[in-house]
Model the fold of this input.
Amino acid sequence: MKIGMISFTRQGFALAKKIEEKLKSIHTVNVSWCSKENQGEEVLLKDWSREHFLEDDALIFVGAAGI
Done:
């Protein structure tokens, strides 16, 4: 199964990486960080969602409970 996972904060990204560690032995997992704090290229949620909705079997959004 291909899983796309995206987070919105530094703490969320750390949690996503922990989840990835647990899942990667049986699934293909792609973790992204949707934040201007990200040191790499900024990932826009709408673009990420469009791309991964078409390519992945499951999407995981790591965010605050109030979202």
The CA atoms of residues 39 and 52 lie 21 Å apart. The beta strands are 2-7, 28-33, 58-62.
